[in-house]
Amino acid sequence: GAGPAGTAAAITLARAGREVLIVDKATFPRDKCCGDGLTALALRELEDLGLRPESVPSWRAVHEAVIRAPSGSERRYPLPPGPG
User: Fold this and answer.
1) What is the dihedral sign for C-alpha 50, 80, 58, 75?
2) In this structure, what DSSP letter does residue 5 have?
3) Segment 76-82 mean pLDDT
4) Residue range 38-56: mean pLDDT, rounded
5) Longest dimension (CA), the chain
6) How many CB atoms lie within 10 A of CB 51?
7) For residues 22 and 24, what is the distance between their CA atoms, to the nearest angstrom?
């Protein structure tokens, strides 16, 4: 698959000199909210693969969490700076 694990495996194998082809049953990009954020650990794993999220034009750092109630009220919580 072309998800995080399959892509990481393909990168690792390609760097080891293997020929790889990534195939997935889904069409990309797709709207999947769980793919809209990365944890600090995920960012470190990407860096270990030589990938810098900052090089993606749509990359945005998150500085706060916002929780909204159905009534419209909201609470904002600042997140600590740095990688997690």
Assistant:
1) positive
2) H
3) 86
4) 86
5) 56
6) 15
7) 7
The rounded distance, in Å, linking the Cα atoms of 68 and 75 is: 7
- In this structure, are residues 45 and 8 in contact, taking their beta carbons and an 8 Å threshold? yes
Cα–Cα distance, 82 to 46 (Å, whole number): 16
Rounded percentage of the chain residues whose pLDDT exceeds 70: 89
Residue 68: half-sphere exposure toward Cβ, Cα within 13 Å: 3
Q: Which pLDDT score, from 0 to 100, does residue 60 have?
A: 83
H/E element, 74: strand 74-78
Q: What's the length of the chain?
A: 84
Structure tokens at 59: 């990359």
Beta bridge partner(s), residue 66: 76
- What pTM did the predictor assign? 0.60
Place of tokens 């944890």: 39
DSSP 50: T
